[in-house]
Design a protein that fits this description.
CATH architecture: 3-Layer(aba) Sandwich
Number of helices: 10
Radius of gyration: 18 Å
CATH superfamily: Histone deacetylase domain
Strand content: 5-15%
Oligomer: single chain
């Protein structure tokens, strides 16, 4: 798997006490380097204004630029809401969005997988406001770039602890979205009634989960059933994965009671579905994950799952492990038309 990374990603909020700290991506890069998984690194680039503005209003982009520039030796909240920025944040966020685009381009050109180890994360960012640590919606920007450059239909797969309200808000017209997430955790969206079949086989698919103690087997079994249902409906040309690992047991900002080892099963499943529908074209974009060790080990497990010599085997998790409420919702989702 190709890795997209830049030391610049550490410059956002450096020295500022905040959960979304530079050490997140630096810990991932260091772990991958020490374990021989950091040898195929691609440099990102800045996303262009045109790429960002396929998702975000130009006025919002200008606001982020101006408000970040106004910070001197301090950090503060964007006027749109609960996202903290400092003087370097606009440049880093633009490079994060560009990293997601480069991962997408690599997957499309090479028919393989790539992982953009970027920050700040993106899936809460809406067209006109940053939210929840997110400035620009990296995954959605990459999806719209795939559509513009390659005519690609994209399914964004989001297994972060938190719902990607920003991605859902810009879905449709060739971009579909499937998510599991804790509910009613932040941001309070993605309820069971937010499941829609959109025109031309696009879809928005949400499976809300209890906020804690969902469990590893249930989580893996749910995704083993959910992702094939969504992919069969959408028939995407590309999977973009909003890869947030704050679902892991002990994460200080999440915790669904899921073991780190679940990432291996998720990676194998996504690889299998990507090969079936997309010619293996999968681009991962880092979202949450605030236990640095668990985050690093989870990313490494995803990489190993895509590089394994034997692919395509299911996890062995049984449907019976899925709680009744989620099994019933899966049946409703399967009937979307």
């Amino acid at each position: 798997m190709r890795i997209v990374y830049d030391k610049l990603y550490g410059d956002h909020l450096r020295g500022i006490p905040h959960p979304e700290a530079p050490g997140r991506v630096e810990a991932v890069a260091d772990f991958l380097r020490r374990n021989g998984k950091f040898e195929d690194v691609i440099a990102p680039r800045d996303a262009t204004a045109a790429e960002i503005e396929r998702v975000h209003a130009s006025g919002y982009v200008d606001l982020v630029r101006a408000e970040a520039a106004s910070m001197a030796d301090f950090a503060g909240y964007l006027s749109t809401g609960d996202t903290v920025v400092d003087v370097r944040s606009f440049d880093v966020a633009r490079r994060a969005a560009g990293g997601a685009v480069v991962a997408m381009e690599t997957a499309m050109h090479e028919g393989g997988s790539a992982f953009a180890v970027v920050r700040p994360p993106g899936h809460h960012a809406e067209a006109r406001r940053g939210m929840g640590f997110c400035v620009f919606n990296n995954a959605a920007i990459a999806a719209r770039a795939a559509q513009a450059q390659f005519g690609a239909r994209t399914l964004i797969v989001d297994f972060d602890y938190h719902h990607g309200n920003g991605t859902q808000a810009v879905s449709g017209a060739g971009l579909s979205y499937v998510s599991t997430h804790a509910f009613p955790a932040y941001p309070g969206t993605g309820g069971r009634d937010e499941n829609y079949a959109l025109p031309k086989r696009d879809a928005i698919v949400n499976v809300p989960l209890p906020p804690h103690d969902f469990g590893t087997e249930a989580f893996v079994a749910l995704w083993e059933r959910l992702l094939p249902i969504a992919a069969a409906h959408v028939r995407p040309d590309l999977l973009i994965v909003s890869a947030g690992f704050d679902y892991v047991t002990g994460d200080p900002a999440g915790d669904l009671g899921v073991d780190v080892g679940a990432a291996s099963h998720l990676g194998a499943l996504i690889d299998r579905v990507g090969r079936e529908y997309c010619g293996g074209r999968v681009a991962y974009v880092l979202e949450g994950g605030y236990d640095w060790d668990a985050l690093a080990r989870s990313v490494a497990a995803i990489i190993d799952a895509h590089g394994a010599p034997v692919k395509g085997e299911a996890s062995g998790a049984e449907d019976s492990a899925i709680p009744a409420a989620q099994r019933e919702l899966l049946e409703t989702i399967e009937a979307l038309d």
